[in-house]
């Protein structure tokens, strides 16, 4: 299980991303350094009295061999976010790369990201997700929210958005979340008791992974799958293994040519991983259908997410099977890693932790369970999560393909089908938006009067960890609630101290930013 924390979603997405960042078609190599080409980063260009829009061909960028050298010889393959910092220093906030006919425009400043996001079409396209689609096509499965595009995506989101998108809808799951948190606290107590010092958790990310998986299964399927039990039930263990299998093999199937699929074991393992993930989902969906048949929902009764979608005819079982596994995958690494980073920083800054503890117990005294409405009175707690996501945007690199029309950005014009790559990690550590950007300062998110050094207003696109617009994260409100509820309970109960052997932890970009080693914490009972 511990090793699981280092694979999953990020590998597949890494594959998708890297597939688009390499080879340049002949004659389309970068030509000029950006500083002379872009009038100003904030300037969309070509307005009245402004300089004429320039062609993207004027933009600079790394050549294919150089990119390959950086990734595989210099070892940036797990540090793509750092490579982008390097490229920004060299080429400025906008540079290009290519794969065959696909033009990639990398954007590394908040105003440039804003310009593209604000020109988004009705049906935004993130990327093509070919590898994921290949599995669905092979088995006649429906596409889910990550894999589907166009009008079909829009219709699917119309259905899936219900009962999850709004904060008040997410709040309906508070009781379920608190139930899992109760069990998680029992598990932590046991883990601490089993440690040599009697208070240590040696791999926090691993514990939080189990917690997040239990949470998301309970919310989606109203089913406890036993991630926090000992031993974990075989079905759930097999599911966890399958996620690992699928993601680990994604990296190989992305880079190896198609003709190797029948010769080498990776493609078969990749498909096997997906098949088991879908079998797990199918079993839960079938159980839910039987429950609905046996006991239809009565009026006024609050049901779980899947129950609601199926019993209201918003999704057919076939559509549910296409979507739910994708939601499951999206809901685990994201929250578990964010919580890990938040606890790591709180353990390193005891002053902030002390202030946070004061805020938390002032609203929810020790022994009491927080409710959704409590967080309106906990600005520092919310700021801790915001600051964590600024430093470690779970998706450090995201993208949009302009499928409908040409797009004007930073004084340049880009043809239809250009892929824009948002370098969120670089953007959210930009010193011009966030002074002293490498340091953990939740206070920078507090409004005037809430902190001594009141922060100036940040650029609205400086940190957008949940994305933007109609294609933004569906699970944002659930994720925030889950993280707020758990952090409150932990801070109420424990003083969090870094385990001596952990020392400095660095981030590794396996698409999701994960710690480069186990994060050990001592949880001292208050
Ligand atoms: C800390 C927690 C999380 C973060 C930071 C996060 C971040 C993101 C980001 C950046 C995107 C891409 C948005 C875009 O392209 O504009 C996304 C998409 C998505 N997220 Fe999350 N996410 C989190 C938790 C969750 C959870 C708990 C769920 C499930 C309930 C979830 C479900 C999804 C889905 C289904 C999409 C695809 C939406 C679409 O393409 O229409 N996420 N998330």
Could you say how many structural domains there are in total? 1
Give the overall average pLDDT.
87
End-to-end Cα distance: 30 Å
* Global Rg: 23 Å
Structural class, from secondary structure content? alpha+beta
Main beta sheet: 4 strands, mixed
According to CATH, the fold-level topology is: Cytochrome p450
- What is the CATH homologous superfamily assignment? Cytochrome P450
Topology, number of strands:
12
- The geometry reads as globular
Which architecture would the CATH scheme give at its second level?
Answer: Orthogonal Bundle
User: What is the strand arrangement across the widest sheet?
Assistant: 2-3-8-5
Number of helices: 19
Report what the structure shows:
The chain has 526 residues and is of the alpha+beta class. It has one domain: Cytochrome p450, CATH 1.10.630.10. It is built from 19 helices and twelve strands. A hairpin with a 2-residue loop joins β6 (407-409) and β7 (412-414). α9 (174-194) crosses α19 (476-493), α11 (234-255) crosses α12 and α15 runs parallel beside α19 (476-493). The structure holds protoporphyrin IX containing FE. Protoporphyrin IX containing FE binds next to α14, α15 and α19.
């Amino acid at each position: 299980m511990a090793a699981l924390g280092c694979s999953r979603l990020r590998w597949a997405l890494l594959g998708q991303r890297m597939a688009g960042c390499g080879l340049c078609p002949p004659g389309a190599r970068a030509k000029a350094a950006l500083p002379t080409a872009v009038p100003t980063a904030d300037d969309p260009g070509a307005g009245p009295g402004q300089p004429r829009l320039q062609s993207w061909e004027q933009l600079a960028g790394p050549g294919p061999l150089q990119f390959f050298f950086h990734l595989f010889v210099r070892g940036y393959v797990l540090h793509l976010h750092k490579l982008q910092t390097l490229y920004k220093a060299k080429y400025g906030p906008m540079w290009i790369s290519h794969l065959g006919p696909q033009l990639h425009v990398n954007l590394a400043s908040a105003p440039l990201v804003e310009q593209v996001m604000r020109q988004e079409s009705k049906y935004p396209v993130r990327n093509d997700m070919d590898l994921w689609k290949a599995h669905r096509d092979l088995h006649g499965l429906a596409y889910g929210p990550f894999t589907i595009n166009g009008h079909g995506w829009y219709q699917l989101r119309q259905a899936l958005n219900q009962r999850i998108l709004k904060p008040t809808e997410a709040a309906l799951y508070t009781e379920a979340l608190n139930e899992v948190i109760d069990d998680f606290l029992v598990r932590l107590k046991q883990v601490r008791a089993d440690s040599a010092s009697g208070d240590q958790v040696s791999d926090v990310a691993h514990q939080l992974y189990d917690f997040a998986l239990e949470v998301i299964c309970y919310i989606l399927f109203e089913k406890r799958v036993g991630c926090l039990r000992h031993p974990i039930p075989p079905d759930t263990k097999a599911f966890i293994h399958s996620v690992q299998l699928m993601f680990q093999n994604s990296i190989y199937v992305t880079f190896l040519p198609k003709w190797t699929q029948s010769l080498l074991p990776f493609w078969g393992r990749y498909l096997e991983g997906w098949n088991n993930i879908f079998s797990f989902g199918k079993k839960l969906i079938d159980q839910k259908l039987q429950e609905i048949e046996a006991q239809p929902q009565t009026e006024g009764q609050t049901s779980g997410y899947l129950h609601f979608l199926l019993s209201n005819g918003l999704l057919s079982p076939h559509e549910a099977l296409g979507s739910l596994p994708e939601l499951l995958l999206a809901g685990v690494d994201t929250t578990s890693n964010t919580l890990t980073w938040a606890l790591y920083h709180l353990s390193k800054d005891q002053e902030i932790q002390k202030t946070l503890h004061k805020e938390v117990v002032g609203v929810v005294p020790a022994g009491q369970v927080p409710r959704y409405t409590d967080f309106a009175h906990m600005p520092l707690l919310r700021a801790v999560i915001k600051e964590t996501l600024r430093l470690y945007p779970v998706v450090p690199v995201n993208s949009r393909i302009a499928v409908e029309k040409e797009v004007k950005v930073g004084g340049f014009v880009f043809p239809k089908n250009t892929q824009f790559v948002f370098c969120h990690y670089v953007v959210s550590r930009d010193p011009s938006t966030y002074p002293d950007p490498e340091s953990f300062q939740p206070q920078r998110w507090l409004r005037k009067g809430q902190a001594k050094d009141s922060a100036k207003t940040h650029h609205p696109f400086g940190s957008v960890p949940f994305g933007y617009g109609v294609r933004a994260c569906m699970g944002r409100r659930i994720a925030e609630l889950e993280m707020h509820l758990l952090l409150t309970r932990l801070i109420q109960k424990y003083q969090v101290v870094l385990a001596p052997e952990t020392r400095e932890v660095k981030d590794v970009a396996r698409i999701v930013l994960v710690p480069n080693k186990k994060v050990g914490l001592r949880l001292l009972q208050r």
